[in-house]
Amino acid sequence: MNIEQQLQSKIDLKTKPLKALGLLEKIAYKIGKAQQTLTPQLTNPTIIVFAADHGLAKEGVSAYPTEVTYQMVLNFLNKGAAINVFCKQNNINLKVVDAGVNATFDSHPDLIQAKAGLGTHNMISGNAMTQDELDFCFKSGQQIVTDIATTSTNIIGFGEMGIGNTSSASLLMSTILNLPIDQCVGRGTGLDDTGLERKKNILSTIIDTHPKPNNAKEALLQFGGYEIAQMCAAMLEAYKHNMLIMVDGFIASSAFLCASNLEPKIIDNAIFCHKSDEIGHKLLLRSFDKQAILDMNLRLGEGTGCALAYPLIQSAVAFLNEMASFESANVSNK
């Protein structure tokens, strides 16, 4: 038997009915297959939160002012955000990347400086970023993961912070999947009905006034954001290092959509951690033909879904490695 057949047999012969552990069995199989072993391990788990501002935010596509991006990065660095709490609870390393916040930060041991600009350009009047800025984002994202790989990390999660970034994610989703923009746009940080309608109208105008991109890199050039582009590149680099990739919510999934457009095999290493309350995320997950671990009406971002799902990923590895088989436990199989 090859390694895939051995893994499935090992899972099936545990002291349980077939498929009784549901999604945990699929996760265990995925991890074992990625690591090409019957006894996989998770080492030095790390979550990276990419933060950047968006020029489009001044058009009122978010319920929050743009300065919240800067303020939340400071909150991350002061260990006061939800992602800090959940990472501490589950012994996950956390790094924060300034991919393009419209402010400057003092040096900090948990902050990675990779600023592509002081926020993307307003898509109403042109592309979100220049080709040089996109190239910088890809080089930066790759280098960040290359550096983390030296710490023996073999499972990595991706989160984000950026007021206005659900608009970029919706535009990326719409153009790459050829879906009507209305199916991809949600309330983001909590827009009311009037704000949601304004957001839809603005994004529809942007779709109509931009040429259709031919690939994910062209889409990122047009629609941004810096944090999504760096996340996309970081995911691709994580795949090159054969890391398990924990994908957070709607924004992170849009970055993964871009990454999978550039390298389809990356799906083999991806674990989708939660289904966001954002309207487009269900369709986005369906496009990958994957089930998320959690469905808890989360829409915070920051990588919180990754941190919350990580203990269940640990459980998948634990049952594969430690649970008795029918034979070893002298339990009768049917």
From TrEMBL:
Catalytic activity: 5,6-dimethylbenzimidazole + nicotinate beta-D-ribonucleotide = alpha-ribazole 5'-phosphate + nicotinate + H(+)
Alphabetized GO MF terms: nicotinate-nucleotide-dimethylbenzimidazole phosphoribosyltransferase activity
SUPFAM superfamilies with a match to the protein in the record: Nicotinate mononucleotide:5,6-dimethylbenzimidazole phosphoribosyltransferase (CobT) (SSF52733)
CDD domains: DMB-PRT_CobT (cd02439)
E.C. no: 2.4.2.21
UniProt pathway annotation: Nucleoside biosynthesis; alpha-ribazole biosynthesis; alpha-ribazole from 5,6-dimethylbenzimidazole: step 1/2
GO biological process entries: cobalamin biosynthetic process
Keyword annotations from UniProtKB, A to Z: Cobalamin biosynthesis, Glycosyltransferase, Transferase
Class of enzymatic activity (EC top level): transferase
Superkingdom classification of source: Bacteria
UniProt record similarity statement: Belongs to the CobT family.
NCBIfam families per record: cobT_DBIPRT (TIGR03160), PRK00105.1 (NF000996)
Protein name per UniProt: Nicotinate-nucleotide--dimethylbenzimidazole phosphoribosyltransferase
Organism whose genome encodes this protein: Myroides marinus
